[in-house]
Amino acid sequence: xxxxxxxxxxxxxxxxxxxxxxxxxxxxxxxxxxxxxxxxxxxxxxxxxxxxxxxxxxxxxxxxxxxxxxxxxxxxxxxxxxxxxxxxxxxxxxxxxxxxxxxxxxxxxxxxxxxxxxxxxxxxxxxxxxxxxxxxxxxxxxxxxxxxxxxxxxxxxxxxxxxxxxxxxxxxxxxxxxxxxxxxxxxxxxxxxxxxxxxxxxxxxxxxxxxxxxxxxxxxxxxxxxxxxxxxxxxxxxxxxxxxxxxxxxxxxxxxxxxxxxxxxxxxxxxxxxxxxxxxxxxxxxxxx
Length: 289
Ligand SMILES: Nc1nc2c(ncn2[C@@H]2O[C@H](COP(=O)(O)OP(=O)(O)OP(=O)(O)O)[C@@H](O)[C@H]2O)c(=O)[nH]1
Ligand SMILES: [Mg+2]
Known about the structure:
This protein is α/β, with parallel strands linked by helices. It folds into 2 domains: 6-167, Rossmann fold, CATH 3.40.50; 181-284, K homology (KH) domain (GMP Synthetase, Chain A, domain 3, 2-Layer Sandwich). Helix content is 34%, strand content 24%. The chain has 10 helices and 9 strands. Strand 2 (47-52) and strand 3 form a beta hairpin. The longest helix has 18 residues, at 242-259. The protein is globular. The relative contact order is 0.14. Bound molecules: guanosine-5'-triphosphate and magnesium ion. Magnesium ion (MG) binds next to helix 1.
């Protein structure tokens, strides 16, 4: 640890839908805590994932897309913002009113820009991407990344670490996230729906953990999946329960990898007619406060 304390703080990772925020947080921390999927708007509320080394503790906050919500800052009080821009749509993203609003609001908080998807461009063009960003954004820290191959990720960790304040440790040793195991598991169940089901059914199926208990070192997780239409119930269950088993397999594998414990997942499908249109249901299922 450094004499002036460890570098410890919060970094909010922000950007437009599908720009690669969640995949980047997972690459930065080496854990797949944040659900990442090609379906836009996969991240619905901020999700934390902590990078711990001997010298730094960085709590990355994966955020919902800037173009999804209220126009408020996705997270306030961060030590640093990391703006992720999809390099395939760089001009459009730099001109987006949501990005411009965000840049106007962050004021004195330091900013690092990470153009993502650089695997879609030859290395000879990466410098041009950096130049294009530097002409539009008031930041000298621009680190191109590919979260899938890991290219640029260590450089980004170095840039972020250099901007995190030295202070007392904010997080206990071995802390991987500020969320409960229960929340992390429920996000992996939600992710498994997108892997297994058509997007229109996955995005209208809510996950509600009814029981989360410890039995012989195993986590027992009884969960209700609420579909919004009667006709979706059969799709989620599948022939003789095959789809439900498939969903449970994906969710158990990914969740037990994250919490590093075996999991016994018990899934039940229920109908809550038109829940995405009902504010009380949205609150109950954790979509809005
Ligand atoms: N080829 C390539 N694919 C990427 C890269 N980054 C993310 N992806 C893929 O792009 C899709 C969207 O990535 P996410 O990380 O979920 O995007 P997001 O910004 O969190 O999306 P929202 O939560 O909807 O805002 C996923 O299928 C990722 O695997 C990248 O650098 N290169
Ligand atoms: Mg996301």
